[in-house]
Design goal:
The chain is of the alpha/beta class and 222 residues long. It has six helices and eight strands. The protein has one domain: 3-Layer(aba) Sandwich (Rossmann fold).
Length: 222
């Protein structure tokens, strides 16, 4: 069981806002999850994963990136990325302050744009113990020749990819090639038949996916 409550830390700029899942019996691991370009912290995929991980003892923060705090809808603007990464960095600081255990492991995860910014941040600074990248946007659907891979060789923490076999932002083969650029250990978990939303679109959802992702994550980050 876990308790979920609104979370805010306004001591930094940009501030940290989201929802915190606190398990009855914490395992000693923390996870920050953030959303894609068209979503927010209420995305069903993030909620389902947060509940699954909190059920296993993780303290989980689902957070809104700074661009979403400023605008309730619409994608990020070209100049938003650096501030969104700073907001994610502030979320890491806030989680460490909340947990107050220096020996806890902390992981950062994100869907699409959120995962891209999380991976770029950790390529710049090793601020966490690992990455969970959900539907990493390897390229725009219409631009397969413009790959977002420049920062991958600088990532020094383990990375777990969860990717649909029908994702227009990158094929499974393309993700396989991209993850080989990362010097740390990596894992790719293909989701058969899923698109960029991993089967969580509108009211539809893949009920078995959160538990499966949790199981793979625990095996990988043992």
């Amino acid at each position: 069981m876990s308790d979920t409550k609104a979370f805010a830390d306004t001591s930094s700029d940009p501030p940290v806002r989201g929802f915190l899942h606190v398990p009855d019996s914490p395992s000693g691991d923390d996870l920050i999850l953030t959303h894609g370009a068209g979503g927010n912290a209420h995305m069903p995929l993030l909620v389902a994963l947060a509940e699954a991980f909190a059920g296993a003892g993780f303290v989980v923060l689902r957070c809104d990136l700074p661009f979403r705090q400023q605008r309730s809808f619409g994608p990020p603007r070209p100049g938003d990325a650096a501030r969104d990464r700073l907001g994610l960095k502030n979320a890491i600081t806030a989680m460490r302050k909340f947990s107050s255990y220096s020996l806890r492991r902390l992981f950062v995860g994100g869907q699409s744009y959120g995962g891209r910014q999380a991976s770029t941040l950790l390529a710049e600074e090793q601020l966490a113990d690992g990455l969970l990248l959900l539907s990493y946007p390897l390229h725009a659907p219409s631009r397969p020749d413009q790959l977002r891979i420049q920062h991958l060789p600088q990532i020094a923490v383990p990375v777990m990819f969860v990717h649909g076999t029908r994702d227009p932002f990158g094929t499974i083969d393309e993700i396989e090639a991209a993850r080989k650029l990362i010097p740390a250990k990596t894992l790719l978990v293909p989701i058969e038949g899923a698109g960029h939303d991993l089967g969580f679109k509108g009211k539809s959802k893949r009920d078995a996916l959160p538990a499966m992702v949790l199981g793979k994550f625990q095996q990988f980050f043992i």
